[in-house]
Structures are given as structure tokens and as C-alpha cells.
Automatic annotation (TrEMBL):
Species lineage: Bacteria, Bacillati, Bacillota, Bacilli, Bacillales
Family to which the UniProt record says this protein belongs: Belongs to the bacterial solute-binding protein 2 family.
Subcellular localization(s) per the UniProt record: Cell envelope
The name this protein goes by in its record: Sugar ABC transporter substrate-binding protein
Region forming the signal peptide: 1-19
Length: 378
């Protein structure tokens, strides 16, 4: 393994301080001390275990009706996240209704209103922007409905917001690329604005350009659609024709796995194996693509999307039980590099054998959860 996998550098800290104007930092009060994700996870677990007994709370002795409202459902990362949500709710004996807004924020807000009117027992928010959905989310809070959001810039008292620590995700992948390029080269940046996690990842990219001025961006493109990977592949194919010679492009930074899949396939088909791809996010499909012999996909920074979905549900059930939950929580990301994976195909559930620290989070667990699962075994 490479020694630079750990990204707790002074530069990262400085960059995060520069990013203090983002909405995530606004959610923190001036009295809040920032802690590493692992410390936050441990503290959250200890607090909840001390506050709860192993007896299932009265509020959860009936099946909960949950609304899971998603800004979009594009690609395998989203599908595995939704799978994690469904599995955790099912284990707890609840019911979950999935709402896909197809990247329409007004529709997403309307779905939140619908969930409030239906008097659901809890609402899960996936992505979405505060300027569009915050008024509807406030109505849910005022109605006494627990809300937990994922990868959103919402900052409403009583709403827990979890994320993948997008700043660390981005810097993990970028620093790996800089080291492999020895601090010099020509790169392509695939990116689209308008999404909270993408905006946060871009903060680190802008810092990266200042840190490594000899790494030059020669092209930038990207859009989000129902066929993002295919659209990205077509755009990359056109770019490869514009830059046909070896050495024209050294690497591609694609901070979304749908982007990374598209550029990887374009590079493979063009036979341009000298170009390396560095991405963010991971799924079983992504792993298979990374492990192909001629795959240029070199590294990706990621968390387990299914585990994120399960974590979000656990926080929601803690809220429904009346337990204290944090205002914000960041999941610890990891860098997965192709060279660390075996020659045989592996799945997301097996990565822990090859990547230090990869595993299921035990945050947001309460003693009564095991009894709740036992009571709902089928």
C-alpha cells in the first residue's frame, strides 16, 4: 500500500478552514469542536447506549411508515444506497415508500409535503438543496416527524444530516493522482454543479490546483442525466479525438462513479491505457470495471453506499424512539486502489480484506435494536 493513503495533512486542514463559508460549516455553531469521524462515531454510540435500554421503546412497538425521498436515482451507487435503506427498515419491521424526484427539486419538495400530509412516522432525505426543500422539511419538523438527510445542505434544528465527508473523499483521490503524476501533467476534470456533494468536492479541487500548479487542467465537461455514464463516455470519446497523441492527457479526475465509468470505457475502447482515471464513489459494478486487466481506473475514494443507507435509517429510528442524535455526522471514507485488489473478482462486502479500515459502521446503534430485529424476524 502507498504511504499517502492517509489524508490527515496540514494542507487538508487549511483547505477545510478556507472552505468555512460552505453551508456545512454554517451548520456548526461557534462552540462546536470539530472531531475526526471515528471519534464522532464512538461518542455517538456511547451516548445513545447510555441513554437507552435493551427494551424496545414503546414508540417502535408498531411498524413505522417511512418515506424515503430522493433527488435522483442514477447509477449503481444510488441503487445500492436505496437497497441499504430498504434492508434496514425491513429488519426493524417497518415499511418504506421510495420517492424519486428525477432531479426535479420542486417535485422533491412536493414529495416531502405529501409525506407530511400522510402523517408518516419518519422521513429520509437523499440529496436535495436547502433553497428548494427546506420550507417543506420545516413543516415535517413542526409536525413532529423525525427527519434525517443525506448529502444535503439542509441546516434545520432537529434534522440530522449525514454525509460522506466529501472534502476528504475528494482530497484522497486528488492526492493519489498528484503522487502518481509526480506533481506534473495534463488532466481532464469531469464535473457538474448544482449538487451539494459535488460542490464540496469541487472546493478541494480548487485547492488542489493551487497546491499543484504544474498539474494543468486542459479540459472540463460533465452533466447529470438518466444516462450519465453513457453521455460521459461519448463526451470523452470526442475529447480523445481532439487529443489523439500519447502524452496529451495524463489523467482524468471524475468525482462521481457515473463519470468515472464513462471515461474509463471511452479510454478502454480507444486503447489509450496511458491515461489513468481517479474517481469518487464505489459499487459492485465499479469494482468489476476497475479489476478489468486493461482498466485505466486506478483509484477511487469511497464509502459503502448500502452501509450509508442503513446508518441513515438507524438514526431515524433513534429519533423516533426519542433518543438524542447529532446535528451532523460524517462517514469515514477510504481510498481503494486497483493495485490493492486481487486478480479474482471481489464484491463490496469483501473489500475489507484488502483495504485497511473498510467495514460496516457501528454508529447510531442502540441496545434495543437487536431485540427490535428479533421481534420482526420472518
Amino acid at each position: 500500500m502507498k504511504p499517502y493513503k492517509v489524508v490527515a495533512t496540514a494542507f487538508l486542514t487549511a483547505s477545510l478552514l478556507l472552505a468555512g463559508c460552505t453551508s456545512e460549516q454554517d451548520a456548526l455553531s461557534s462552540k462546536t469542536e470539530t472531531k475526526p469521524a471515528s471519534a464522532t462515531e464512538s461518542k455517538t454510540k456511547e451516548t445513545n447506549q447510555a441513554a437507552a435500554s435493551s427494551e424496545v421503546p414503546e414508540q417502535l412497538q408498531k411498524p413505522l411508515k417511512i418515506a424515503s425521498i430522493n433527488q435522483f436515482s442514477i447509477g449503481t451507487f444510488s441503487s445500492q444506497y436505496i437497497s441499504g435503506v430498504k434492508k434496514q427498515v425491513e429488519k426493524f419491521g417497518g415499511e418504506v415508500q421510495i420517492y424519486n424526484a428525477d432531479n426535479d427539486l420542486s417535485k422533491m419538495a412536493a414529495y416531502v409535503e405529501t409525506a407530511v400530509n400522510q402523517q408518516v412516522d419518519g422521513i429520509l432525505i437523499d440529496h436535495g438543496r436547502a433553497d428548494a426543500i427546506a420550507p417543506s422539511v420545516k413543516k415535517a419538523v413542526e409536525a413532529g416527524i423525525p427527519v434525517v438527510a443525506f448529502d444535503s445542505d439542509i441546516s434545520i434544528p432537529g434534522v440530522t444530516v449525514i454525509d460522506q465527508d466529501d472534502y476528504s473523499l475528494s482530497w484522497n483521490a486528488l492526492r493519489s493522482m498528484a503522487q502518481d503524476l509526480n506533481g506534473k501533467g495534463e488532466i481532464v476534470y469531469v464535473w457538474v454543479g448544482g449538487f451539494t456533494p459535488m460542490e464540496r468536492r469541487n472546493v478541494m479541487y480548487e485547492a488542489f490546483k493551487k497546491r499543484y500548479p504544474s498539474i494543468k487542467e486542459i479540459a472540463r465537461f460533465g452533466n447529470a442525466s438518466q444516462n450519465t455514464a453513457l453521455d460521459t463516455q461519448s463526451q470523452m470519446e470526442a475529447l480523445l479525438q481532439k487529443y489523439p497523441n500519447k502524452g496529451d492527457i495524463d489523467a482524468v479526475f471524475a468525482p462521481w462513479d457515473e463519470f468515472a465509468k464513462g471515461v474509463t470505457r471511452a479510454i478502454q475502447q480507444a486503447g489509450r491505457d496511458e491515461i489513468k482515471v481517479y474517481g469518487i464513489d464505489l459499487s459492485d459494478e465499479d469494482l468489476q470495471l476497475m479489476q478489468e486487466p486493461n482498466s485505466p481506473w486506478t483509484a477511487t475514494a469511497a464509502t459503502d453506499p448500502a452501509d450509508v443507507g442503513k446508518l441513515q435509517v438507524r438514526f431515524l429510528y433513534q429519533k423516533a424512539a426519542g433518543e438524542e442524535t447529532p446535528q451532523i455526522y460524517s462517514v469515514q471514507p477510504h481510498l481503494v486502489e486497483k493495485e490493492d485488489l486481487p486478480n479474482t473478482k471481489v464484491s463490496m462486502s469483501e473489500i475489507g480484506k484488502y483495504v485497511d479500515g473498510w467495514g460496516k459502521s457501528d454508529a447510531a446503534t442502540s441496545p434495543w435494536m437487536e431485540n427490535l430485529k428479533k421481534a420482526n424476524q420472518k
